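Onboarding guide, step 5: your first structure request.
Type a short instruction followed by the sequence, for example:

Predict the 3D structure of this protein.
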Amino acid sequence: MENTGGQGFSFQNMKDNWPVFLSGFSFSFVFFLLLIIFSPTLLITQYSPEQVDGILLEIPEIPSQKKLLSLYNLFRKKKARKVFLLFHESFEVENKVGLQENYQEAFLRYFLRRGILPEYIDLMTVPKQKEFSPASNARHMARLLVARNIKSIILLTETFDSRLHLNAYTEVLSPLKILVYVSIYPEPFNSSNWFQTSRGFSHVFGKFLQYIFS
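The system replies with structure tokens like these:
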């Protein structure tokens, strides 16, 4: 019986399209191989001097105890004059962890219990209608850093966000004669284990795309 329908599956079609399929597969394989090889070099950086004026932590969501402890230890180790905590206006801690108090007061008390007085801490909020991204946040922080006479600052970041943050803040703050450095806080995925699980690979792949399109 003659086939009067549209083109369906056939081995001939598959054979004809095989070079296209093979080319696409080869490109994907090479892309992922390069991602595995170069992601740590491309996405990760970390360096800070013995002493800085300030330390900045962006807080888009509830920070882990390890992250806050890293901030505390970095503050003590670097003898910083100021800690800057940058929130987004949509951050609502009471809806996530059941706290009835103002979330900013909760953070101030956390550091006060560890000997960091409120006068050493600046809490800034990015308006809800503004983007919460490294480039936007750097512009938001620039005026305050100048007003506080900050000449050097460490960005405390996630491992695979470190170079993106360094580049974004350096572009904004370098013309203001503010030196920018990066330190990394502990997290589940790092340069030696991210490729061992699908979650780690997905996480880094997302960071990779964010970096190249930023």
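Each response can be followed by summary notes, for example: Residues 59 and 87 are 5 Å apart (CA to CA).
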